[in-house]
């Protein structure tokens, strides 16, 4: 196998354009997903090196990786935006798929929860994923989050246990955590030869061969027989693997039940069937060196689906309301989804699209079904991280970027104007934290508005609104890091100097009981007056159910044309809040009575009446504040566990349990976000800098009464 490395690299054609048009069955659209610091970007970097895409290994620590190209990514050593890159791999082993030249489109995603939108939209358009785990800790909090995201989009996955060469590595415990915490039907296809500093390669359970290094620093492989002390263990793992996957292929199952010896190709065929059906997840283990990555690349090609292996995309015909299907074929009508927007300093606004069917040419007119507008494709671009390559045409199964479509955003469906189809969009979580931002000078004022609009166009979880009473601009997002990065980008990329306030928690308001309210707006000014009158009933909904508006008007108490203005008035008042100036959520509003004037009634009058009625009813409906509750996992040496738990308890935390992860203890808790300000500094102080924590939004809960009173008192100058 070592001899194959040079051969594979030399097989890569330097310009991708010549090699783009591989058959559908030889395309793999994959993402690399994981908890922060599990090794996603390093895995990507090694894949690019092994496939000959790069000829020098980049380093996250040195800021030289291909996919982390933003200045902030290189400075911080984290991935902030997902990066797309294309490479090729020549499969040469005995396989269940055809040998030859495979095109692998890779998206490297962030691991930090603040940038979860990048993971969400990437998984929506991918056919498969590599789920990377730290082999010292196994499944971590963000691992569970991205696994659930992949489940939501039914994405086939390969598991990668990384860092098995580092102190604390535990292959068995990591696999157990995948079974216990994810409930995944997963099993190794490779097992490590040694762990921690003794790690020197892997055993391939299908070939029943060991691939080892002579030296720890050596990347050259030696194929050898399985070490004698590992042979029984390898046989046991192999037999368990066959038992788990035989059922996924009838022919293989028959052979297995008859006691016939299964070939390598038989087992791979069964594994592939299980993976494509999202019922089995093969586990590869290693340390991101030649042995593990070459076997992993073979696994990507052999087990993960091509665009024609996944179900054909389905959507709704907006003209008929009927469900339609588009097969992965260039001859089908165009169906594509916009999933990412970026502002490129060289070519302007770029929209990444996944083409599910049909093809698209530069200069072509396409129809945005979501916004019901026609757009013209300016240029088509293949992206290689921050490098661009112009192409004339793109085909089904491809992920490309489009220049020139001005109004298409994230989650928009694109199609042939004559054959529109509305695909499933992408949903993103609501922001949980906000801060006020002000331009440093009048010159920065206009530039800041432009910069913020472009940044919110790129990131669907980044929201902007103005506070008309204070004149401040409020920006909201998923966490302090996200907002810090966006303000930094505003300065670097758009030249905008701005001052920011302290982060503010995104509280919500809601009601606890049913109430009625009357809104009557009458103005007489000598000429034509204003008259609007309505009765509303408000009812609490379950947490997270949002807002529902309904009309129960019977007869002609209120003409139909005034119902919509009442709803607008209600929504505007809900956005402004009543109790403390925070948005209202989780309630149903019913307009059930009212009156009108033949001459004086108007839309504006009923809009104001709706707003007044909502306020009247809400004040009788036992209003409460809701606060975001965060899921927190603190990893600490055991000696500091008591102090960490004590500090969390002082922050109104609910401790749900502890778990041993290698040399660290993981403390799991839910904590109000308002209590977590400055926690990184506090935790460093408590643990002498040795503990770390992870935090992600969990749910909203009612704020205790005494804290609600303090919040209202603080905001009394700005609340409505």
Q: What order do the helices and strands come in, and which of them pair?
A:
Elements: H1 4-10, H2 16-19, E1 27-34, H3 40-50, H4 71-76, E2 83-91, E3 100-108, H5 116-125, E4 128-134, H6 141-152, E5 157-162, H7 171-182, E6 186-188, E7 190-192, E8 201-204, E9 209-212, E10 222-224, H8 231-245, H9 250-257, H10 264-276, E11 281-285, H11 290-303, E12 313-316, E13 323-326, E14 335-344, E15 348-357, E16 359-361, E17 365-368, E18 373-376, E19 379-384, E20 387-391, E21 393-395, E22 399-403, E23 413-415, E24 422-423, E25 433-439, H12 442-458, E26 463-467, E27 472-477, H13 480-494, E28 498-500, E29 504-505, E30 508-511, E31 515-523, E32 530-540, E33 547-551, H14 563-576, E34 587-595, H15 603-618, E35 623-636, H16 641-649, E36 654-661, E37 664-672, H17 679-687, E38 692-702, H18 705-714
Parallel strand pairs: 1-3, 1-4, 4-5, 5-11, 6-11, 33-34
Antiparallel strand pairs: 2-3, 7-8, 8-9, 9-10, 12-13, 12-24, 14-15, 14-23, 15-22, 16-21, 17-18, 17-23, 19-20, 19-22, 25-27, 25-28, 25-29, 26-27, 30-35, 31-32, 32-34, 35-37, 35-38, 36-37
Helix pairs in contact: 3-11, 14-15
């Amino acid at each position: 196998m070592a001899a194959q490395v040079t051969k594979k690299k030399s097989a890569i054609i330097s310009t991708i354009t010549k090699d783009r048009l591989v058959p559908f069955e030889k395309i793999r659209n994959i993402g690399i997903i994981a908890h922060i610091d599990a090794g996603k970007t390093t895995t990507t970097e090694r894949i690019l090196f092994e496939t000959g895409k790069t000829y020098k290994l980049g380093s996250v620590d040195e800021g030289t990786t291909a996919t982390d190209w933003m200045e902030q990514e290189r400075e911080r050593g984290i991935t902030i935006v997902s990066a797309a890159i294309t490479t090729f791999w020549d499969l040469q082993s005995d396989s269940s798929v055809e040998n030859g030249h495979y095109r692998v489109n890779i998206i490297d995603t962030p691991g930090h929860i603040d940038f979860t939108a990048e993971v969400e939209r990437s998984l929506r358009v991918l056919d498969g994923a590599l789920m990377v785990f730290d082999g010292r800790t196994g499944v971590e909090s963000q691992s569970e989050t991205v696994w659930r995201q992949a489940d939501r989009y039914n994405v086939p996955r390969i598991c990668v246990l990384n860092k098995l060469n580092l102190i604390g590595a535990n292959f068995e415990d990591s696999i157990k955590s995948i079974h216990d915490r994810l409930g995944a039907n997963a099993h190794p296809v490779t097992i490590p030869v040694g762990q921690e500093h003794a790690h020197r390669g892997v055993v391939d359970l299908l070939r029943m061969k060991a691939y080892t290094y002579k030296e720890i620093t050596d990347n050259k492989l030696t194929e050898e027989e399985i070490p004698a002390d590992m042979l029984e263990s390898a046989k046991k793992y192999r037999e368990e693997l066959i038992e788990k996957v035989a059922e996924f292929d009838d022919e293989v199952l028959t052979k297995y039940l008859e006691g016939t010896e299964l070939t390598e190709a038989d087992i791979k065929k069964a594994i592939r069937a299980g993976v494509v059906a999202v019922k089995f997840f093969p586990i590869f283990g290693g340390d991101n060196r030649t042995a593990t990555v070459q076997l992993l690349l073979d696994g990507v090609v052999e087990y993960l689906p091509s665009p024609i292996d996944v179900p054909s995309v389905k959507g709704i015909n907006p003209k008929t309301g009927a469900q339609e299907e588009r097969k992965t074929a260039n001859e089908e009508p165009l169906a594509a989804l916009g999933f990412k927007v970026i502002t490129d300093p060289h070519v302007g606004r770029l929209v990444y699209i996944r083409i599910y069917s049909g093809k698209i040419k530069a200069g072509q007119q396409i129809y945005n079904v979501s916004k019901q507008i026609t757009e013209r494709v300016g240029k088509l671009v293949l992206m290689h991280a921050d490098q661009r390559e112009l192409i004339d045409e793109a085909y089904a199964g491809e992920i490309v970027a489009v220049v020139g479509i001005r109004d298409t955003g994230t989650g928009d469906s694109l199609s042939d104007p004559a054959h529109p189809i509305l695909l499933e969009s992408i949903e993103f979580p609501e922001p949980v934290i906000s801060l006020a931002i002000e331009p440093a000078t009048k010159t920065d004022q206009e530039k800041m508005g432009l910069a913020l609009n472009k940044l919110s166009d790129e990131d669907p979880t980044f929201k902007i609104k103005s506070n008309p009473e204070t004149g401040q601009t409020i920006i909201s997002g998923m966490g302090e890091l996200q907002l810090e990065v966006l303000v930094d980008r505003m300065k670097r990329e758009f030249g905008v100097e701005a001052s920011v306030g302290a982060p503010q928690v995104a509280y919500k308001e809601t009601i606890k009981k049913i109430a009625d309210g009357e809104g009557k707006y009458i103005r007489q000014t000598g000429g034509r007056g204003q008259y609007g009158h309505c009765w509303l009933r408000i009812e609490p909904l379950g947490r997270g159910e949002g807002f529902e508006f309904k009309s129960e008007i019977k007869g002609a108490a209120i003409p139909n044309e005034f119902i919509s203005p009442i709803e607008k008035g209600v929504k505007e008042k809900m956005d402004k809040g009543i109790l403390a100036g925070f948005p209202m959520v989780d309630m149903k509003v019913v307009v059930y009575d009212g009156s009108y004037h033949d001459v004086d009634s108007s839309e504006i009058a009923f809009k104001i009446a709706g707003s007044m009625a909502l306020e009247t009813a809400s004040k009788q409906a036992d209003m409460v504040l809701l606060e975001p509750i965060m899921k927190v996992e603190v990893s600490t040496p055991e000696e500091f566990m008591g102090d960490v738990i004590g500090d969390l308890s002082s922050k109104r935390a609910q401790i749900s349990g502890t778990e041993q992860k290698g040399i660290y203890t993981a403390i799991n808790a839910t904590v109000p976000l308002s209590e977590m300000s400055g926690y990184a500094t506090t935790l460093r102080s408590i643990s002498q800098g040795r503990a770390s924590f992870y935090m992600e939004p969990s749910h909203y809960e009612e704020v205790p009464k005494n804290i609600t009173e303090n919040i209202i008192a603080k905001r009394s100058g700005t609340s409505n």
